[in-house]
Specification:
Order of helices and strands: EHEEHHHEEEHEEEEHEEH
Radius of gyration: 20 Å
CATH architecture of the largest domain: 3-Layer(aba) Sandwich
Number of domains: 3
Structural class: alpha+beta
CATH topology of the largest domain: Rossmann fold
CATH class of the largest domain: Alpha Beta
Oligomer: single chain
Largest sheet: 5 strands, antiparallel
Shape: globular
Strand order of the largest sheet: 10-9-8-11-12
Number of strands: 12
Strand content: 15-25%
Number of helices: 7
Length: about 280
């Protein structure tokens, strides 16, 4: 079978370890695997789609998402569907999808005027985050009205959420199909790059994790959990994460990719595309 990974430019410029490991395993099993960075390719939208049996979106850039959407419109198969990835990427849409699916989430608001946020502080601290941010970029914790006065004018959609007091430790759940893995780590601006420590996954957390996948139609994804006095709350969902610190992640992901491709009737034909050059 033929697989194509859509990746992003990385900073620092080192390959994604999960992609390296999964690619190696799939090639050992006799599959043809190619990787591409859409920002470094020229793809004619008028051309016939590449004959890849499955596309795997491992990038959060706007161009990658747009390319995934174009491929999906052509009838290409993606292990995480385009619409699900697009909805998860937008934090405002993501929140509402989760809430409608019965997943516990923080109380949240949207507005274009920071001044409107001041009455919310009577409830307690709030978090302001860009709707398409990632890795914690652009997040502000607001505790006093004066801090709202210092906020820059909102020039793009912004999500505002109640701040949930916790011990400062992140709980991330990684999901591969129906398998759920837990990782704990202390939050920091660089915590996304660290493995963390494996953590037990309770039946409640497993139910929450799988509910998130069903809400977006995802097979490979991760979610960030904040555990407060009122129980766990999902604050973010990411399609195709790095699975850092998850034992046996590469094998589980490779198995999931194979099984999904077979279950969707993958074609056994050579890949013919100008993306072939990225092997």
């Amino acid at each position: 079978m033929n697989f194509l990974f859509l990746q992003a430019r990385r900073t620092p410029d080192v390959p994604s370890q999960i992609i390296l490991d999964v690619t190696r395993l799939l090639r050992q099993r006799g599959h043809h695997v190619v990787s591409s960075i859409p920002e470094e390719e020229l793809l004619g939208l008028h051309e016939a789609p590449a004959a890849y049996d499955l596309y795997l979106l491992k990038s959060y850039t706007e161009l990658s998402l747009s390319m995934a959407g174009a491929l999906s419109a052509r009838g290409a198969s993606l292990i995480n569907p385009y619409q699900g990835c697009l909805s998860a990427r937008n934090k405002i849409v993501c929140h509402q999808v989760l809430k409608e699916a019965g997943v516990p989430v923080p109380d949240s608001w949207i507005t274009g005027d920071p001044e409107m946020l001041k009455p919310l502080l009577q409830r307690g601290p709030i978090i302001v985050k860009p709707h398409m941010g990632w890795r914690g970029e652009g997040i502000r914790i607001i505790r006093q009205p004066a801090e709202i006065d210092s906020l820059p004018r909102f020039t793009s959609p912004t999500l505002v959420q109640e701040y949930i007091e916790n011990d400062g430790e992140d709980l991330r759940l990684y999901v591969v199909g129906e398998e759920v893995f837990g990782i704990r780590k202390r939050f920091s601006s660089t915590s996304f790059a660290r493995d963390g420590e494996p953590a037990a996954v309770s039946p409640e957390l497993r139910r929450i994790a799988l509910s998130c996948g069903r809400a977006f139609g995802l097979k490979l994804y991760g979610l960030d959990i904040i555990e407060g006095a009122d129980g766990p709350r999902v604050v973010d969902v990411n399609y195709f994460p790095g699975y850092k610190g998850v034992p046996g992640a590469a094998c589980a992901v490779a198995d999931c990719i194979e099984n999904h491709a077979r279950s969707t009737g993958a074609l056994l034909q050579p890949a013919m595309s100008n993306l072939e050059a990225v092997q």
